[in-house]
Amino acid sequence: MPEVIDKVAAVLTDALTEQGFDLWDVRYEKQDADMVLRVLVDRLDGDINMDDLVMLTELISDRVDEIQPDPFPEAYLLDVSSPGAERDLKRPRDFDWAVNKTVELELKTPVDGEMTLTGTLVSATDDEITLEVVGKKGKRTQVTLPMDQIKRAHLSIDQDRILMTDDDFAWATEKLVQVSTYRKIDGQKDFVGELTEVTPEVLVLADEDGQTIEIPRDVVAKARHTNTF
């Protein structure tokens, strides 16, 4: 119900800012048999903690109770929490905050056959967004999309999965990986590239320029999936 959300946001925005917090989002939604008012809050500086949320629950409850006339058609549960690690990006300042962070975009129409894009947010304006994505061979490219093509944008958790078993390496095939070795191969011990092939004896990586290197598995000290070089 947009009217409820707008009224709640109107009374909370300045009150939270004065206390050093940012009203990230307000949601009024059904959960099982109950209506729930979800208020997502973050610190303007630093990380929000449990003590903050306890204090904010009381502050927010008092402020919402003061709204007249009462905009709620029925009783509701109040849930005050942080936006979380995969927080939605909606407002212009959300995107400004997320510059240089990894984000995931769900698209209304496909780009190169893909309905989702994950990459580093380079810039955002009111009209468009620029994302740096890593291709299959580890090559970085920038993609600029109009805002009206984006169905949903949210922060993405970097998936730095440690690779140890055959199942891990099978999962990581055609993904970007980082490998460290016990001894030098061609003068180096650290490699990053697309994992193109896995055998019982070797890992084959393709670097940003498409050059391949074979790494004997018996010299691998550590391997992990990564999103960045």
From TrEMBL:
Family membership noted in the UniProt record: Belongs to the RimP family.
Ribosome maturation factor RimP C-terminal domain location: 89-157, 163-224
Protein name, entry field: Ribosome maturation factor RimP
Location relative to the cell: Cytoplasm
CDD domains documented for this protein: YlxS_C (cd01734)
GO BP annotation list: ribosomal small subunit assembly; translation
Cellular component, GO annotation: cytosol
Function: Required for maturation of 30S ribosomal subunits.
UniProt keyword annotations, A-Z: Cytoplasm, Ribosome biogenesis
Species, as recorded: Weissella viridescens (Lactobacillus viridescens)
Domain of life according to the entry: Bacteria
Main location: cytoplasm
Pfam family, one: DUF150_C
Lineage of the species this protein comes from: Bacteria, Bacillati, Bacillota, Bacilli, Lactobacillales
Residue ranges annotated for the Ribosome maturation factor RimP N-terminal domain, each copy included: 13-86
